[in-house]
């Protein structure tokens, strides 16, 4: 099995933040740090916890176009005073409607 590993360094640490001027700062030590620096307090960034686990879904292009078109129609109806913003269809409703109208799943891979 070709297993990928997360490199233990400041770039993958949960304590790092990136400033507006693109400096990497450790929130724990309150220091500007280099990308590959590593310290004993390193902890994996939350966004990397599920890296490589393939839990994502890929949406079908036709579904994305369908949702876009519905949302554009809703926006126009709102602008014309025909629809209130709180009355737009939920994503769950749109997924179900797409499946019923096309016979397709909204997802290509899931």
Tell me the fraction of residues in β-strands, as a range. 5-15%
Sketch the topology as an H/E string, one letter per element: EEEEHHE
Oligomer: single chain
Put simply, the count of helices is 2
Major beta-sheet overview: 3 strands, antiparallel
What general form does the structure show? elongated
Summarize model confidence as the mean pLDDT: 88
C-alpha Rg, in Å? 22 Å
Distance between the termini: 21 Å
Helix/strand structural class: alpha+beta
Number of separate domains: 2
Return residue spans where pLDDT drops below 50 for at least 5 consecutive residues. none
Strand order of the largest sheet: 1-2-3
Into which percent range does the helicity of residues fall? 25-40%
Total strands: 5
Description of the structure:
The chain has 110 residues and is an alpha+beta fold. It folds into two domains: 10-47; 58-109, no CATH class. It is 28% helix and 12% strand. It has two helices and five strands. The protein has helices spanning 61-79, 91-102, and strands at residues 16-18, 24-26, 31-32, 58-59, 107-109. Strands 1-2-3 form a three-stranded antiparallel beta sheet, with no helix packed on it. Strand 1 and strand 2 (24-26) form a beta hairpin. The longest helix has 19 residues, at 61-79. The chain starts with 15 loop residues before the first strand and ends with a strand. The model has no long low-confidence stretch (mean pLDDT 88).
